[in-house]
Amino acid sequence: MTDFRFDLQATDGAARTGVITTPRGGIRTPAFMPVGTAGTVKAMHPQHVRETGADIVLGNTYHLMLRPTAERVRQLGGLHRFMNWERPILTDSGGFQVMSLSKLRKLTENGVTFQSHIDGSRHELTPERSIEIQCLLGSDIQMQFDECPPFPISEEGSRESMELSLRWAVRSKQAFEEKSAPGNALFGIVQGSVFEDQRRRSLDELLEIGFDGYSVGGLAVGEGQEEMFRVLDFTTPHMDTARPRYLMGVGKPSDLVGAVARGIDMFDCVAPTRSGRHGQAWTRNGPINIKNARFIDDETPLDPDSPCPASSQFSKAYLNHLFKAGEYLGPMLLTWHNLNYYQELMAAMRGAIAEGRFEHFVAHFEAAQGAQT
């Protein structure tokens, strides 16, 4: 059995590139993980997800525990077999979705009781149950159960939430050590909103507990890019250099570039798939709305130099027509294109870091994107 490990290959300033090794294959970093919340990356065939360059996808404890249930997925061979994805899978703990989607939520020291947003059924999610579900799903990288606080939040409210997440981190690790399969990994989650002393305390205690990787949570919840970068500026320099660093729920291309510049290795976000379903295409020169009338007669593809068929083999006029006509193929092609663009962006950053030209890459990226990002 291959052990989980992270091999740092090169640095350029704070930016890093390396490889995370798992029993199901390597993950090149910086890495973007397409979001497959309910066991599928929306509008995408698994083979096409892989062909974009994705080494890993994300699944979600909250959604899969409600439907079809983790126990059923286990009976059907585990999440990899269920969704026909043999590469690594990371599962979120469900904490964010419990806070943002569920009804009649009640938070206690033990965990969270809530009503399903699907059918109103009652459930309880605790650190132990979250880890149990992730083990039943068979994910390769699991997340501690935490509370993701809202923004804005008072300093005292943030402190109470952060301290609860730390207590849950201890219980999550204990459950993981009892239930996990060999080779799997557990990440801790740094909380503390925008308060530097709280972030430092959260990180210090998580490092003392000991995890296979460390995530920065509680960002991309409304604080804005400038504030997010400020938090990373005082958090990442103190993170374990020998472990992967994961910024959760982020983000737009400019977010990814700025976070990599601050030492982050892993990302996930619904932005490329959600925007693709609604007609927004990310390009080297910034985002465009393919439904705009200026594309009605545009015979050029989104990216003639891309190996991705969705990017190079269909005209903007055709994509515009598909969205205007309400055809499913439109969102499918634009999602495919966006995911490919994100993976090309990550590959370009890995190459720039390895060659010691990341600062030049950032300058070129910002000039090309301009104010559109």
Automatic annotation (TrEMBL):
Q: Which domain of life does this protein belong to?
A: Bacteria
Q: Name one GO cellular component term.
A: cytosol
Pathway as given in its UniProt record: tRNA modification; tRNA-queuosine biosynthesis
Q: Tell me which Gene Ontology terms the entry assigns under biological process.
A: tRNA queuosine(34) biosynthetic process
Residues bound to substrate are D92, S93, G94, G95, F96, D146, Q191, G218
The record's catalysed reaction(s) read:
7-aminomethyl-7-carbaguanine + guanosine(34) in tRNA = 7-aminomethyl-7-carbaguanosine(34) in tRNA + guanine
EC number(s) in its UniProt entry?
A: 2.4.2.29
Q: What class of enzyme is it?
A: transferase
UniProt-listed Pfam families: TGT
Which residue range or ranges hold the tRNA-guanine(15) transglycosylase-like domain?
14-368
Keywords, sorted A to Z: Glycosyltransferase, Queuosine biosynthesis, Transferase, tRNA processing
Positions of the UniProt region annotated as RNA binding? 249-255, 273-277
A molecular function GO annotation: tRNA-guanosine(34) queuine transglycosylase activity
The positions flagged as active site in the entry are D92 (proton acceptor), D268 (nucleophile)
**What protein family is recorded?**
Belongs to the queuine tRNA-ribosyltransferase family.
Q: How does it assemble?
A: Homodimer. Within each dimer, one monomer is responsible for RNA recognition and catalysis, while the other monomer binds to the replacement base PreQ1.
Q: What does this protein do?
A: Catalyzes the base-exchange of a guanine (G) residue with the queuine precursor 7-aminomethyl-7-deazaguanine (PreQ1) at position 34 (anticodon wobble position) in tRNAs with GU(N) anticodons (tRNA-Asp, -Asn, -His and -Tyr). Catalysis occurs through a double-displacement mechanism. The nucleophile active site attacks the C1' of nucleotide 34 to detach the guanine base from the RNA, forming a covalent enzyme-RNA intermediate. The proton acceptor active site deprotonates the incoming PreQ1, allowing a nucleophilic attack on the C1' of the ribose to form the product.
Write the protein's name.
Queuine tRNA-ribosyltransferase
- Gene symbol here is tgt
